[in-house]
Amino acid sequence: MMTQEKLTILCSGASLGTYIPSLVMANQFNDRGYDTDIVVIDSLLQDKKQDNILKTKFAFHRNFSLALIAQKMHGDIRSSLDENKVADLLASWQQEQRTRFIMVFGLWVPIMELYIDQSGLTDVKVELCSVDSVKSPGWSTYELSNPHFTMSWLVNQAENTVPYLLPVTPNKPIPYTERSGSFLIHGGGWGLGDYKNRIPELVTQGFPLDVIVYEAKDLENRLPNNRYFMIDPSWKAWERNLHTGKHQFPPFGEVSSKGHTVFTNNPHYPEVYNLVQNCQAIISKPGGATLLDSISAATPLILLEGYGPHEQKNADLWESLGFGIRYQKWQESHYSLDVLRNLHNNLMQAREKIPNYVEVYHAANH
Fold this sequence. Notes:
By secondary structure, the chain is of the alpha/beta class. 37% of the residues lie in helices and 14% in strands. The chain has 13 helices and twelve strands. Strand 3 (100-103), helix 5 and strand 4 (125-130) form a beta-alpha-beta unit.
C-alpha cells in the first residue's frame, strides 16, 4: 500500500462537467489506496457570489443566448473570491505540506500559483487535466506556463485522439442489442442548448425519450411516453455531505406522473449513468463530461449546438472519430438506427485501446 500523502483534486461545483469527472476520478484513486480530497472553487467565493450561482443557472437554462453572451465575458475569478477563505485553505494545505494536485477546472490557476509562491515547497506538482478537447474559457483566462504545471487532455482535438479513458464504472458497456431502446436527451449540468426544441419531433418519430429536466416549469409540456428525470434543483455542489464530510454525486431521481421526485445518491457513480449506459444514444450539446460518458459507456452522441467554440470543437472531434453524428445529419439519414449502431461499434473498438487515466497517473507518480 502506498503512503497516504493527499492527492488534491481541484474542480468547480457550478461546472458539473468538471465536478462529476473529479468525483469519478477520486473514487478510482481511492480504490488504489490514495487519500484524495476534492476542493470545489465555489466554496471560496464571497457569500453573495455563491448565492447568485443557482439564480444564474436557471437564467442560463431559460435563455441559451444569454448563456452564450455571458461565456464571451468570462474573466478572472479573483475579484469574486473571499480572501479569508482562500487564506485559510492555503494555510491548511501548507500545514499538511500538500504537493500533489490535479486541476480539472482552469480558474484554479491563480490560487495554485499563490500557494506555490507562499508555501516555498519546491516539489509541488500540478497536473492540469482538461475534460474538453481544446482550452475552454476557464483555461484560456490565464497563462499556464508555471514550471510546476503539466498539461494533460482526456480528449484532444488538435491530435484527433482520446488519449485517456476515465470509465465511470468498472463494468463493460452493455451490448447494444440489450439496451432499453430509449434515447437520453439533456442540456448538460445546467440544461443549456436547444435540446427541448427537439423533443416533439423525436416523439413524432416514435422514439422513447429519457428527458433530463431542471425545474418544475420544464414539465409543463410533458408527454406521456417519455420518462423525466431531475437533479435536485436546490442541491449545491460546493457543500459537503454533513455526515461524511465529502462531496457527493448530484441527488437524482425520476419525476413521477404527479410531479413528485425521490432523489437518491449513489456513492460510487452518478445515478444518470444508469441511463447513459442503457440508452441507444445521448442527444445533447457536446460538453466534455458528456464525451467522457459516451466513450465510457460506448453510447453514441447525437450532437446539438455546443456551448461556445470549445464545445463545437468537441463535436468536431467526436464526429471525426466516428463516435457521434450532428443532429441535422442524423435527420438527413432518416433517423437511422444503423448509423448509431456503427458509432457504438466504433466506440467499443476504440475504448479497448485507450489507457486508463488513473492507472497512467499512478504509474507515472510512483
